[in-house]
Specification:
Blueprint lengths: L4 H13 L4 H13 L22 E8 L2 E8 L2 H14 L2 E2 H5 L5 H4 L8 H20 L5
Antiparallel strand pairs: 1-2, 2-3
């Protein structure tokens, strides 16, 4: 049976709780970024660039059978890990499910307060872009 969004988020919170130091959590994020599938160079276009990020982050998605599949890349290793984390949670979910989520699992792992202000702004921009994609595709079947 497929895991619910809340179950996946709880598992991520649990994974992060295994590390006491933020340095180790950053290493975990970097590892997540390394596992991100290759992103095609031809998709690294201005219209896929997330505005508000200090580093460059590209996000693309396609909707199939009412579910959104995201793909992304970044030119910065920690940022790549963050977008990888977001994609691992939200890719394959319905637009309604993503649009209705509060993304609070990120607060539970303490991500925003342990990022530099510019990275924290970038995180908010990534969330806003994912939510906007979901909202734009709600009730489209």
């Amino acid at each position: 049976m497929e895991k619910t969004l809340k179950e996946i988020q709880s598992e991520i919170v649990e994974d992060f709780s295994l590390y006491d130091e933020w340095l180790d959590k950053y290493e975990y994020l970097i590892e997540l970024g390394k596992k991100l599938p290759a992103y095609p160079e031809e998709k690294k276009t201005e219209d896929r660039l997330i505005k508000g990020c200090q580093s460059r982050v590209w996000l693309d998605y396609r909707v199939e059978n009412g579910r959104i599949d995201f793909s992304a890349d970044s030119d910065a290793i920690i940022t790549k890990g963050i977008i990888s984390l977001l994609i691992s949670v939200y890719s394959g979910r319905s637009a309604e499910e993503i649009a209705g989520d509060d993304f609070s699992f990120l607060d539970r792992i303490g991500l925003k307060e342990n990022l530099s202000p510019t990275r924290a702004n970038g995180l908010v921009s990534m969330i806003d872009t994912i939510k906007a994609a979901a909202i734009a595709n709600c009730h489209k079947q």
